[in-house]
């Protein structure tokens, strides 16, 4: 995966997440920042502003724009446009509220423009960096657990 182009504005510097281990993801088509796990996809049968859209349960690396009431095909919704943290591209919108009861299931979800997303399945031949990352993760976990056990042992010692 190419390194994401991070804009020099201060609020975007350290927030861009670039990997979700080896899970299939949707990434920004412009800067490759990870936007959502493919597992979070609810429906592909939505309309974005200019084309097809995906309804997605949760997303990362997105900045929320201003809330506004917008008439959509299925009625008026309170939405906020969302922008990629990596490159400020408008990716779609977030549903704050739906006025129609039949549309309530969209609240708290994201509508992302299909053309702004790239599917990343991480089917690479060179697995080396991912294996390295995983190994460090497991090692870190073991170290933390050992520390917890040691603290427990020390505390038991004090109280007996
Ligand atoms: Zn981007």
Automatic annotation (TrEMBL):
Pfam families: Yippee-Mis18
Organism encoding this protein: Lentinus tigrinus ALCF2SS1-6
Yippee domain ranges (all copies): 24-121
GO molecular function, one term: metal ion binding
PROSITE patterns noted in UniProt: YIPPEE
Key words of the record: Metal-binding, Zinc
Lineage: Eukaryota, Fungi, Dikarya, Basidiomycota, Agaricomycotina
Family: Belongs to the yippee family.
Protein name: Protein yippee-like
Lineage: superkingdom: Eukaryota
């Amino acid at each position: 995966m190419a390194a994401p182009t991070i804009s020099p504005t201060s609020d975007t510097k350290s927030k861009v997440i670039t990997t979700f281990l080896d899970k299939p993801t949707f990434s920004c088509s412009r800067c490759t920042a990870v936007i959502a796990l493919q597992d979070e996809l609810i429906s592909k049968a939505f309309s974005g502003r200019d084309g097809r859209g995906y309804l997605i349960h949760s997303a990362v690396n997105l900045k929320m724009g201003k809330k506004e009431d917008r008439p959509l095909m299925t009625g008026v919704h309170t939405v906020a446009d969302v922008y990629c943290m990596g490159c400020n591209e408008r990716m779609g919108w977030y549903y704050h509220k739906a006025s129609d009861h039949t549309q309530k299931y969209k609240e708290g979800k994201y509508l992302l423009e299909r053309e702004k997303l790239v599917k990343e399945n991480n089917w690479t031949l060179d697995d080396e960096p991912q294996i390295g990352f995983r190994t460090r993760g497991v090692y870190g976990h073991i170290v933390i657990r050992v520390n917890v056990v040691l603290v427990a042992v020390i505390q038991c010692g004090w109280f007996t």
